[in-house]
Amino acid sequence: MDVLAALQQRPSLNLFPIENRLSPRAAAALATDAVNRYPYSETPVAVYGDVAGLSDVYDYCVDLTKEFYGARHAFVQFLSGLHTMHTVLTAVTPRSGRVMVLAPEDGGHYATVTICESFGYRADYIPYDRKRLQIDHSALAARIAEQPVDVIYLDASTTLHFPDARALRAAAPDAIICLDASHLLGLLPAAPQTLVLDGGFDSISGSTHKTLPGPQKGLFVTNSDTVAEKVAARIPFTASSSHSATVGSLAITLEELLPHRVDYARQTIANARRLGEELARRGFDLPGEDFGYTDTHQVWVHPPEECSPHEWGRALTRADIRTTTVGLPSSGRSGLRLGSQELTRWGMKEADMAAVAELLARLLLRGDDTGRVAADVADLAREFPGVAYAGQPAPVTVT
């Protein structure tokens, strides 16, 4: 098998809500000598003597992260979203503590409850209104009044709305509230109701390769000195190596995106909304018409009752259209969970969503030949070979 050939980019249409395109500089960082090196560090009994200055790269990435999210503390040692989740939960949750998370059928991450229970925490579910497709803050407040909670770990993986940080704080004034924003990290600059670190979330964290177009990694920000101290104390026992090349790649991503972060986030959301409109216009069944189909990068599509969601997923894969089928809170069964973030990163705008929707309609609704659709997918992908929102780096103002 020619492994290098298999790893090369193939012309395809990427509607995964969990992937994005790295810039050339960020991708190049992953092939540097740093991929196998540790930064300089000292402990009471040891010195790790790096001579390349990798610690400066780490510090620079931390400063960029604080600038990007307006945070006082940031950590970038994590390898993934799940790695971050393990670290955060074990840092802030007391022994045998009570943690509230989103149920998987309400869009929560599949692994969170299992992780909580494996550490001996008592896990409970956040009340969720499946008609409005949002957290039920009144029911949450009532439940917490009956039984206090130590930590709310908001782990929405399938969501059409941004969480309301202040409403959550009002419902749980004494809890530590942690947002796992793996799906939303790149959109938070355009979501002032969510990017709230004083009077809202105690921490925001997540993976860096979804709406944030960085490498596969994790980051964490907080304005709480206490939470920062707890996470810093925990990291040495969860991250012996932070993979220095990915730290550099993340730094480049943040550096390039920083001056464009609001425009990129707004365009991603606008593209998702237009994609929802175009799909509905062609006859697909989508939830959320009353609020414009989505407020985030995600668009959900319900397959017909007679069609297996896996049939759609396999058909799209054969046509070189990357998608996911997952359980959708809006229907109680699996459906398409599409994302607009990589199309936006390619440079697509609202007008381009019609062509994307038409390809899906030809394949899934009208039964067009898979080969013909795949050929048109490749043609469309070749029209957008570059990376948008990766202009000149902006100066960092956080010290």
Structure explained in plain terms:
The chain is α/β, with parallel strands linked by helices and 399 residues long. The chain folds into two domains: 22-259, Type I PLP-dependent aspartate aminotransferase-like (Major domain) (Aspartate Aminotransferase, domain 2), CATH 3.40.640.10; 260-382, Alpha-Beta Complex (Aspartate Aminotransferase, domain 1), CATH 3.90.1150. 37% of the residues lie in helices and 15% in strands. The chain has a seven-stranded mixed sheet, with helices on both faces. Strands 13-16-15 form a three-stranded antiparallel sheet. Strand 15 and strand 16 form a beta hairpin. Helix 3 packs parallel to helix 9 (244-257), helix 4 (81-92) crosses helix 8 and helix 6 (137-146) runs parallel beside helix 7 (165-171). The protein is globular and about 65 Å long. The termini are far apart. The mean pLDDT is 95.
Record the SSE blueprint.
Layout: H1 3-6, E1 13-14, H2 24-29, E2 41-43, E3 46-48, H3 54-69, E4 73-78, H4 81-92, E5 98-101, H5 112-118, E6 122-125, E7 128-129, E8 134-135, H6 137-146, E9 151-154, H7 165-171, E10 176-180, E11 203-207, E12 218-222, H8 225-234, H9 244-257, H10 261-281, E13 298-301, H11 309-318, E14 321-322, E15 324-327, E16 334-339, H12 341-346, H13 353-364, H14 370-382
Parallel strand pairs: 1-14, 5-6, 5-9, 9-10, 10-11
Antiparallel strand pairs: 2-3, 4-12, 7-8, 11-12, 13-16, 15-16
Helix pairs in contact: 3-9, 4-8, 6-7, 10-13, 13-14
